[in-house]
Amino acid sequence: MTLRYWAGARAAAGVTEETIETGPTVGDVLDDAVAMHPDLRDVVAVCSVLLEGRAVGREAVVADGQVLEVLPPFAGG
């Protein structure tokens, strides 16, 4: 699956996106991402997560070929 990082998550991961083989849930994917990029731990704790463009929780099931996006809270107006 493709994991995309936005804003502060991108800075913490050090990459814009990566392909990873993990699952079966969003929580598993995020845990594996944090294991690969420890600086993501605090960021992921406050992020919204989109699976194929829809907001999901950690319990959502993922499949090969899907896109998961990690979006930290945005400031500004």
From TrEMBL:
Domain of life where this protein originates? Bacteria
Cited InterPro entries: Beta-grasp_dom_sf, Mopterin_synth/thiamin_S_b, ThiS/MoaD-like
Instruction: Read off the Pfam families from this record.
Output: ThiS (PF02597)
Protein name according to UniProt:
Molybdopterin converting factor
Q: Which organism is it from?
A: Knoellia flava TL1
